[in-house]
Amino acid sequence: MNKKKCVITGSNGYLGKQLSIIFKKAGWDVLELSSSNKFEQFKFDLKDVENFRYDLLEKCNLLIHTAYDFSAKNLNESISINVNGSDKLFNFAKKKNVEKIIHISSLSSFNKAKSIYGKTKLEIENVSKKYGVINLRAGLFFGGDSKLIEKIGNICKKIPIIPLIGNGNFKLHLCHYEDLSNFIINVYNEKYFDVSKIYYCCSKTSVTFKQLVKKISNNKLTIPVPVYLIIFFLKMIEIMKIKLPLNLDNLYGLIL
Asked: What is the pTM of this model?
């Protein structure tokens, strides 16, 4: 019996890496695409999609698009790289008769999104519709080596009292990568899926940022910090080109 073929972009990212492992264990033939092009991976760069080997998409049952380029300095540059690159990928995938295409979007993606990431993901959703792409808006990932959870954890390790964003009561919906992978497999197995809809992959119940920080930090003391002060601080840090575990766009994605 022939293996099902799955192509995953962004396979060196947190989610792409986890999905690659899970689909391989499930018996799929997985082709990993990455801009870093590590061992047993194929080169895929959203800045240079035209030179991607599109023959890799032949006889493909499932394309999962998780790749996102965070190097953009502003929204226009992000759209030029991420939206246009994704558009070209979906176009070629359709021409190669890929059976199903899934784009992993984000809960940060909505009409009045503040973050560049959220606005860009929304634009990718919009351009994907003409190709019959299934858009999944995932919550805040946890499990494995979740990058944002790891960033929060690193902050919690370094300081004795944890500053909260405001009062820390804004709500977060979480998503475990294994639950997402199971949902993707269910999506693939369904004969018909309404591609005009957005599908949400996250917990129905929410946790507050304060609850999450308390859990990660093993109940360290917390102190509320006004949001405007945090925004001002992060803007100054960006001007000075200092890298922190949490940047301004991460903040907007969390709270707005």
From this structure: 0.91
